[in-house]
Amino acid sequence: MKIRNDWSRAEIQAFYEQPLLDLLFQAHQLHRQYFAANTIQVSTLLSIKTGKCPEDCKYCSQSARYDSKLEAEKRIAVEKVIQEAQKSKASGASRFCMGAAWRNPHERDMPYVLDMVREVKALGLETCMTLGMLNASQAERLKEAGLDYYNHNLDTSREYYSHIISTRTFDDRLDTLDHVRQAGLKVCSGGIVGLGESREDRIGLLHELATLPLHPESVPINMLVPIEGTPLAQVEKLDVIEWIRTIAVARLIMPQSYIRLSAGREALTDSDQALAFMAGANSIFSGEKLLTTANAGENRDHALFQKLGLSIEASKPSIKQLSVDAMLTV
Ligand code: SF4
């Protein structure tokens, strides 16, 4: 299958509506054309500044607008970040992600984050940051400092977006992704399912991602973790099979991207996770915490990998088609 960025919503919908086993079969076959079989990329994620975020994302415990009982923390010292990065490397992670609860980094924050990138990079880890919206100059400086990936999720479909956040627009998000791409950074962008959206919205989210000029190299497909005090605390839980379908469809339309199981993984059984890997997920966040929500711990992950015969991808990607240029659609 050639790499396409001209998918229609109708085509994506048709993938979704197939019998599950047909969908899984196709997704896994395609997965093996682009990635080494039985191999999972592992990242860790550290919150470098927690809580008191001015944005109003309705799922997020870090928004200052909701009473989620989260304990806010100021910026943590670069030395502490380096210690955590060293531990992650020792446990097998190839990528270290650093997240700050900001609308966007202020100029006064830039020397802090740039130092951090340089030092983590010097450990031989891939670096990733998620700091909110970026302007072009900030993206360029992060690239110069050695940042590999920038995470900025679209969250949901354009149509459902206003139900989830009002303090930045969908187009603001696309602008940040554009600055990141133009600076030569790799893009990590995905969304969240289980926000109360319809399947049509999940199709819309995947359609947005798969019709970007270049597919994101990394696509996190999160499942909402409802948090008391946030507006989505009582939202109806999405069936896990629908999450698995979303992963499989993402694999089919973005075959060269790493599809990441992120938030929500802690609640999955081993069998659910095996099904997600069958569907084409090939990246996880490891560690006890994902910014502020609980995550499957390292020990559980290693036991699961052993049970399933999976190995952890080394720092060098095993993707068979490495060139970003090759991701340009024709
Ligand atoms: S998701 Fe990010 S931007 Fe939105 S409230 Fe949470 S920390 Fe702020």
Automatic annotation (TrEMBL):
Keyword annotations of the record: 2Fe-2S, 4Fe-4S, Biotin biosynthesis, Iron, Iron-sulfur, Metal-binding, S-adenosyl-L-methionine, Transferase
Catalysed conversion reaction: (4R,5S)-dethiobiotin + (sulfur carrier)-SH + 2 reduced [2Fe-2S]-[ferredoxin] + 2 S-adenosyl-L-methionine = (sulfur carrier)-H + biotin + 2 5'-deoxyadenosine + 2 L-methionine + 2 oxidized [2Fe-2S]-[ferredoxin]
Gene3D superfamilies: Aldolase class I (3.20.20.70)
Pathway membership, UniProt: Cofactor biosynthesis; biotin biosynthesis; biotin from 7,8-diaminononanoate: step 2/2
Molecular function in Gene Ontology: 2 iron, 2 sulfur cluster binding; 4 iron, 4 sulfur cluster binding; biotin synthase activity; iron ion binding
Domain Radical SAM core positions: 38-262
Enzyme class of the recorded protein, top EC level: transferase
Enzyme Commission number(s) from the entry: 2.8.1.6
One GO term of the biological process aspect: biotin biosynthetic process
Binding site for [4Fe-4S] cluster: C53, C57, C60
Cofactor: [4Fe-4S] cluster; [2Fe-2S] cluster
Coiled-coil positions: none
Origin: domain of life: Bacteria
Free-text remark on how the cofactor is bound: Binds 1 [4Fe-4S] cluster. The cluster is coordinated with 3 cysteines and an exchangeable S-adenosyl-L-methionine.
InterPro entries listed in its UniProt record: Aldolase_TIM, BATS_dom, Biotin_synth/BioAB, Biotin_synthase, Elp3/MiaA/NifB-like_rSAM, rSAM, rSAM_sf
Residues reported in the UniProt entry to bind [2Fe-2S] cluster: C97, C128, C188, R260
Database matches in PROSITE patterns: RADICAL_SAM
HAMAP family: BioB
Subunit and interaction comment: Homodimer.
Task of the protein: Catalyzes the conversion of dethiobiotin (DTB) to biotin by the insertion of a sulfur atom into dethiobiotin via a radical-based mechanism.
Protein family membership: Belongs to the radical SAM superfamily. Biotin synthase family.
UniProt protein name: Biotin synthase
Native species: Acinetobacter dispersus
